[in-house]
TrEMBL record:
Residues 204-352 are annotated as: G-domain. The gene is infB. Gene3D superfamilies: 1.10.10.2480, P-loop containing nucleotide triphosphate hydrolases, Translation factors, Translation initiation factor IF- 2, domain 3. The keyword Protease does not apply. Residues 46-59, 72-86 have a biased composition (Low complexity). Keywords: Cytoplasm, GTP-binding, Initiation factor, Nucleotide-binding, Protein biosynthesis. InterPro entries: EF-G-like_DII, IF2_II, IF2_N, P-loop_NTPase, Small_GTP-bd, T_Tr_GTP-bd_dom, TF_IF2_bacterial-like, TIF_IF2. It comes from Sinobaca qinghaiensis. It is found in: Cytoplasm. This is Translation initiation factor IF-2. One of its GO terms (molecular function) is GTPase activity. GO terms for cellular component: cytosol.
Amino acid sequence: MSKMRVYEYAKQVDKSSKDIVQALKSKGVEVSNHMSIISDEDIKKIQAPAKPAAEAPKASTNKKTENEGKKNTNMNNTKNNSKPNNRGSQSNPRGRGKRRGSSRQQSKSPHQILALPKKITFIESLTVGELAEKLHRDSSEVIKKLMKLGVMATKNESLDKETIELITADYGVEVEEEEVIDKLDIDIYTDENDSEENRTERPPVVTIMGHVDHGKTTLLDSIRHTKVTAGEAGGITQHIGAYQIEENNKKITFLDTPGHAAFTTMRARGAQVTDITILVVAADDGVMPQTKEAIAHAKAAEVPIIVAVNKMDKEGANPDRVMQELTEFELVPEAWGGETIFVNVSAIKGEGIDELVEMILLVSEVEEYKANPDKRATGTVIEAELDKGKGPVATLLVQDGTMHVGDPIVVGNTFGRIRAMVNDLGRRVKSAAPSTPVEITGLSDVPQAGDQFVVFEDEKKARSVGEQRAARAKDEERNLTNRVSIDDLFSQIQDGNMKEINVIVKADVQGSVEAVKGSLEKIDVEGVKINIIHAGAGAIAESDVILASASNAIIIGFNVRPDVNAKRTADVEKVDIRQHRVIYDAIEEIEAAMKGMLDPIFEEKVIGQVEIRQLFKVSKIGTIAGSYVTEGKITRDSTVRLIRDGIVIYEGAINALKRFKDDVKEVSAGYECGVTLTKFNDLREGDVIEAYVMEEIKRT
Ligand SMILES: Nc1nc2c(ncn2[C@@H]2O[C@H](COP(=O)(O)OP(=O)(O)OP(=O)(O)O)[C@@H](O)[C@H]2O)c(=O)[nH]1
């Protein structure tokens, strides 16, 4: 009994919480409101010497009951006399059970006091009316009590947990929030039949990540060819998105879906499949943007990293430089006193593969990956597609338990019975142990990569859960009206739906990233926090959009553009990408949106993309970009942006747009053209010119 809330104490001594807060403050006790927690010592400070210490609970309870009784009688009288209609309207919107409650109240004589319940329960929230009913009190009485606490609520308004607790405490009624068990959560159907002794060693699951062209695919192929003997493979290896090798009777599972995508999509969907990440860094190129991104992903997932320094056969190979560069990311080689394993390899020549495999086994020995093969299987979807002949096919990674042909299964929002299983060697198998990837058929629909699966005990249950999950997913999709966008930030903040704004920041250079981050964090709009969930240098990638979609975030791009995939995904997922060239503009826009002061804006509409294929230097004119319109069209009067590797190099106007020798007004997709830009000559082959116009957008 050493701690209580201000309002509890206030009730005991029959004073208002406000008075108590003031009294406490005047004695130097730091309290902010009725919910603040105070100790016996604090209480002592404000107790007048004449008044005995806090009344014995018994006495105060009695007093309260008396009080409540009186109030209740009054309320009933008032209502009966002056508001006869209220009652009818009150029972209207209620459900059956609830109506019974109110009719019970109705049948009582106005003078008869209904006892308060000892305890009430609720799920998530209650409306004022529902709470009143549970307390056997009239709504207007509860509304008055709320007013006293400074809460203005109508009968149909929902109350949050804290307010429900306040009111019930005021009545001296116990309250408990009931946890809802989601019958459609497949986790609850996993096989409970588990114990530590049943868990045995399982193969590690390895993902290969690294910068474009550093040799991920070549390394995966090389490992597979070196370690899977031709005889075993029967000459045909099957691409199922993952494969297993065996070395010294120990297996290793490799995911060969592109590492980053696998990581981001799966992690965005809450799945963690990777045990070890191989970070491939080309010895002649060193640490590059995607190397950094890969490190960030692996670290966020707390997955151990083994560095494979690739392309050692190349003349310019400089493994020391790679090591040096990686120390900045806390990847320090053992030779230099660190803990990170570095292996020099040449994927193309198959050199260093043995050592790499050995190191993977070493890490897995240390980490002791375990699973229980004697229970119903659970795991994650690696890949899935619709096959014309076979129907939905999915590669599943069994993460725990053993899967058998014939098992009833729920996979994401679909279900089925496993008709056939094929392993990575293209062979039909009857069962799949932990860490084994298998391609299955027999599902009723195509699941998504990253979906979880659970083998069920009986098929009927699997069907019922699967069907309901599918229905719910459909509903959710329908309800996914709008993700957060700048335009509706203010209304969401106003509605109280938005307490935190998730933001992803992408900029051309790290310096800008830091600057944008810093300024965003400084924005101060009452009660709303900006939460930067990811920030980095480089183009806006699909993984950024997926992350934004998973966390309902806005992407702010500073001097960078989304690539094609990112743009497509952003359209589908309705992710708001805001692009700016001046940091101040970006900050101002967010701040204005948060305050509901957005000016009517012109929005840019990209009308086409042009790829520069060949350059012609003409002494008087400058550089002419021999180009090809890949998408949409380019017009003479459109504004253009020159993009190189996702970074905006130039923004301005077209100087001349020609087809052959003629000036033209516009050129459409599929045609070649010659372009010169106003006051800009540093064009390169492979650059992309994006043409856009500004359109006024009507706010809805
Ligand atoms: N000399 C040399 N070239 C290599 C080696 N490994 C890969 N390459 C070459 O580097 C290029 C890129 O290799 P990939 O395996 O496609 O690289 P990646 O990282 O999978 O590339 P993306 O899939 O585009 O991200 C190819 O031309 C390979 O032949 C190596 O060990 N030595």
